[in-house]
């Protein structure tokens, strides 16, 4: 799995854990719904750290909490 797919999966898992929709995530994170949706559905293949920080702030977790998940272990090498 690459970092983009792992990040998308983690966002969806956190939404499920917090019992919120992507729309609600966007609202509590101060982001537009299109920004969150475009990343999660894969229309936009990357996101910025500042956007990810806003998502974490909205979920009231740290960046460390976000990446402290088994999904980020053994990611594919990005440079081939």
Question: What can you tell me about this protein's structure?
Answer:
Helix 2 packs across helix 3 and helix 2 packs across helix 4. The longest helix has 16 residues. The protein has a single domain, classed as 434 Repressor (Amino-terminal Domain) (Orthogonal Bundle), CATH 1.10.260. It is mainly α.
CATH superfamily: lambda repressor-like DNA-binding domains
Mean pLDDT: 94
Element order, helices and strands?
HHHHH
Question: What portion of residues belong to β-strands?
Answer: under 5%
Q: By helix and strand content, what is the structural category?
A: mainly alpha
Count of separate structural domains: 1
Termini separation comes to: 14 Å
| Poorly predicted sequence stretches spanning 5 or more consecutive residues | none
Total beta strand runs: 0
Quick one: overall form? globular
CATH topology: 434 Repressor (Amino-terminal Domain)
Number of helices: 5
| Largest sheet, strands/sense/barrel | none
Helix content: 55-70%
User: What would you report as the Rg, rounded to the nearest angstrom?
Assistant: 12 Å
CATH architecture label name: Orthogonal Bundle
CATH class: Mainly Alpha
Short overview:
The protein has 80 residues and is mostly helical. 60% of the residues lie in helices and 0% in strands. The protein is built from five helices and no strands.
Write the layout of secondary structure elements.
Layout: H1 3-18, H2 22-29, H3 33-40, H4 49-59, H5 63-67
Helix pairs in contact: 2-3, 2-4
